[in-house]
Every structure is written in structure tokens, then in C-alpha cells.
Automatic annotation (TrEMBL):
It is a single-pass type II membrane protein. It comes from the Eukaryota. The chain crosses the membrane at residues 21-43. This is Uncharacterized protein. InterPro entries: BC10-like, Glyco_trans_14. It comes from Musa balbisiana. It is found in: Membrane. The keyword Transferase applies. GO terms for cellular component: membrane. The lineage of its organism: Eukaryota, Viridiplantae, Streptophyta, Embryophyta, Tracheophyta. GO terms for molecular function: glycosyltransferase activity. It holds the Pfam family Branch. The keyword S-adenosyl-L-methionine does not apply. Keywords: Glycoprotein, Glycosyltransferase, Membrane, Transferase, Transmembrane, Transmembrane helix.
Amino acid sequence: MKVFGRNLELDHERAMISWSPFLIALLLLMSIPVVFVLAPRILPPKTMPSIPDLDEVDDLALFRRATLASAGGEGGRGGAGIRRRPASAPKIAFLFLTNSDLVFAPLWERFFHGHERLFNVYVHADPAAELLLPPTPSFRGRFIPAKATQRSSPTLISAARRLLAAALIDDPANAFFALLSQSCVPLHSFRFAYHALLADTGTPSNLPDGRRRRRSYIEISSTDPWMWNRYVARGDSVMLPEVPFERFRAGSQFFVLARRHAVMVVRDRRFWKKFKIPCLKSRVDSCYPEEHYFPTLLDMQDPAGCSRYTLTRVNWTDSVGGHPHMYQPPEISANLIKELRKSNSTYSHLFARKFSAECLDPLLKLADRLASNVPSLGFGFLDEDLVPGLDESNWLKLIHHSLFISEHHQATCFFKAKNKRLSSEIG
Ligand SMILES: *[C@@H]1O[C@H](CO)[C@@H](O)[C@H](O)[C@H]1NC(C)=O
Ligand SMILES: *[C@@H]1O[C@H](CO)[C@@H](O)[C@H](O)[C@H]1NC(C)=O
């Protein structure tokens, strides 16, 4: 028995010896998933959050619909298919990208008033934003399905693309797409802005009918001093081969795109694949994907179709933490508006940012100033120096430089301007 017992012990020992490496291996194997599950929680991630897969799937479906809806339109690949003729006059789509209340809505209402047939409004509001102000008429029912947005992340590109897609699908008459934020304000009347965009002679095209094509107004720069840092914000060579450094561009986030470029942007997958890569946390200071995606894409795909300057004025003097100067009420004056309109290009700026919410009242007062002088005009002028005399020779200037003047008021102006030649020039 004793011998038997000893043998048993020996067997047991032998078993221990032969089993233990297997056990260790097994334990190691089992620990791999644990490491995968726990490591990201213990070690801080090296990159900023990426775009959730579900959001990507939703977006892809939306962008496909927008591309299909636009096939054969101005943005279509000429020739093939039936060209869908929009039933109405060309419209401007105003795309508001916001993460707070649209505090300047009352100002925009005055800008829009009387031009309902010539524009559409679309709003992408971050779902986390607590909107306290009830939407004013032009904004009511104009909110598109939105997803979370944050700085230093490609979510701002996605949001802009959603707005473009929604506007492309919604109305084939949308010819220009102006991206704006809640802190943007108009610098001219609707009529002025509409004519500036629609009357542009555009760029020559190789279309069979020799039609000229509308231009997009987007800043495209290759001389930003921080370009290299911005290029490698996602990692040293992750942008290759699609985007070599020499082709990487910078520009203002806010633009006015012609329809064919809006289609180009929602159809894109090649550049998005790169620009959606989250930035490295260590390089987050150089992470501004939305200031690079659109200019790079358009400069690579249709450089001749873009103005290379923006129509939205911004003041970068003494900027702090990547934020431009935020105008405060004491700064609001007719002279400021005039100053902001000035541009180095042939075009006056049409919009400006950023204005603090408190600027609403002074801006409205500025727009209302004439109302008390000439009640028949209701509201609408910023060029106060033109107002006092109101002599006929000033009407033309007044009309062209007035802010928020509606068609009704325009008619009043025509009526008042007895000088027929003047009227015909305006018409
Ligand atoms: C731009 O902002 C600076 C302050 O940062 C201000 O002094 C200057 O007047 C502003 N320029 C214009 C044209 O508003
Ligand atoms: C015009 O260009 C000059 C020189 O490049 C620059 O300093 C100035 O700020 C520009 N003005 C506007 C209104 O963009």
C-alpha cells in the first residue's frame, strides 16, 4: 500500500510538472482579452476620440442619397442622364452650424424678410446644446438630424457635410451653400448678397454649351506658418498617399460653395478616410481638421472653380487659444460694419464673425436707425452717413449699401427715386 501510495504521489508530481506550462500558457492566453479590455481603461488613449461607427454608417447613407438626388443637376457629370431643371429661381441655402442658441436670429429675420422664395435655412445644432430661445419663423422646422460636435475633431467636418447633404436633397434650386455659425452676422442686405453671388460671371468651363460655371468662395492657403504641424497632427505620415504635404491646404471654416462643389464634398470618401483620423493627443494644439478638409479637397479637385478667399470676415488680431476676436457691444458702429465689409478681393465681405450675444441689441438698433427717420422704409440701413440728406443721387448708393432692405422697401425706393435713369440702373 505504501508503495502504491508513493507511486500515486509521484504520478501526481509528474502530472503537476507536465501540466503547469500548459496552465501558464492557458492563463496567458486567457489574459489577452482581459488586457485588451482593461488596457484602454488603465492607459490613457494616445488619440482624441474617433467618430462613432454608427454615425459614420448614418452619414454614408445620407451622403449617398444626396449624391443620387443631385445626379444630373449642376453638379452632375454633364451629358449623362436627364438634367433636372429646378422649377424656381436659384436659391441660397444658409447652413447654420451651432452648439448654442441662435442669438442673432432676429437680425437674420430682418435680413431674410421679403425674400422667402430665394433662400432656405438649415440648422445643425449639437444635440447636447440646450436651446432656450424658441426658433423664429425662418428657423422653425429647419433643424436637421444632428450629432455631437466638438473642437479638435473631425465631427465639425461631418456636421458641415450633413448640412450640405440635407440642403442638396431638400431643394434642387439651392445653388449656393453658405456655412455660418451662431456668432455670424450679415454685413449687407439680402438683395446685395444674392446679387453678388448670382451675378458673378463664374469660371469658363469645358461644358459643350460653353456655359460658365459658378464659383465657390472658400479661402485656400498654402502659406500658413503652422502648416507642417497641422499636417502631422494625426501622425507623421498618415495622410499619405492621398494627401501629400505639398497639396495640404488651409482656409477659414466658413465658406459659400457652389452646388457642384457641395456635391463633390458629400460624395468624397477618399479624403474623408484620412481627415477623419483622430488627432494625436500630444498634437491637439495643431488639430483643426475643418480648416483643412474643405480647402484641400476643393484645391485638389477643382482649383479653378474656387475664389480662394472667403466672404466671411473674421478678426484674428490678438487671437487667444485659436479663437478670433469676439466683438462686444461698445465696438458696434456703422463704421465697424463698413470696415468689416472691406476685402482685399474684388468682393465685399457678406458676413462677419464673431459677435458676442450681447451685440444683438446694438446691431438691431443700427439696422433700425433709419426707421425713425423714414418710417416708410421700416428698417434697414447701416450707412448712417448716407441717411441725413436722402437726396436722390444717394438712393443708388443707399440701396446698394443698405443692410436688410426688403423687396418691398426696394419698391418704395424705386418709387421715391423719381430719376428714371437711376431706377433702371438699379433694376
Ligand atoms: C480686431 O480686433 C482687435 C482686438 O483684438 C481690435 O483692436 C481691432 O479694432 C479689430 N479690427 C477690426 C477691423 O474690427
Ligand atoms: C489685406 O491684405 C493685407 C496684406 O496681406 C492684410 O494685412 C490685411 O489684413 C488684409 N485685409 C483684409 C480686410 O483682409
